[in-house]
Amino acid sequence: MKIGTLLTAAVAVPAVALAVYSFAPQPDLADAVRLPPPATVTVNPGNLAYRLPGEFLKAQRPVDGPAEDVRFRRPFEIMTYQVSASDYALCVADGACAPSEGPDETTGNLPATGVSFRDALAYAEWLSARTGEAWRLPTDEEWAFAAAERYADDKLGIEDDANPATRWLARYRSEAEAASGRDPQPKPHGHFGANSNGIYDLSGNVWEWTTTCYRRATLDEAGRIDGSIDNCGVRVVGGKHRGYMSFFIRDGKSGGCAGGLPPDNLGIRLVKERPSLLVAFRTFWRKATG
Hints:
This protein is an alpha+beta fold.
């Protein structure tokens, strides 16, 4: 079955990952102090030409991942801006998040950086509790679709070299060339402008965590996946180029990058999940009963 025929969330996140990292819960918030929800952009349904992330072997030789057509049948909402350092600091002050390793800022609009995958999950759970909405990390497919023209295909076109180092070096050179003259210092919201979906700062100098696991797969002669193993200790991060980071790493430059040029910074952008029928009923009942 082609990847493009599956629903968005099921495309990227293996069942085992869903069992461990489910969507943020919806606790009873009758006595909690609510926060206003972050600004979001609605990404409309459409198609995505998507290259599967991970490591792929064909006839024992490393090759590019297969390209698939992914169909997004339903719209989804994603944050207009990355989570700010000041908003993340509120989670830290509540004792729900560990302090980041990025700039210590409680005001202003610098993005939160120096955060791991675990930190991002904790923030999503905290934000869900404080807003009464369900927030979660995007899948890599969702991130790529939302990024639109700022999503970069990582095809290398090296198919006949059995030495994995050849591909690694080619990828490093490609990413280094694209990032020439880069400034790794985090910039205020809006610095890198908006893409065609009206989402700001995608593919700037802050890479964003996704739920998608790193995959090692073998392909048959037709280029179809013949077998694969998902390593959820490494997650895909979306940015100027696709990256793979160990889930506990907060600074890509310090290590933990699975290949290519490490990300300048690691940050967070969340998707707002549609409420379940139970949550919708509870919200309605709370409003109806005062």
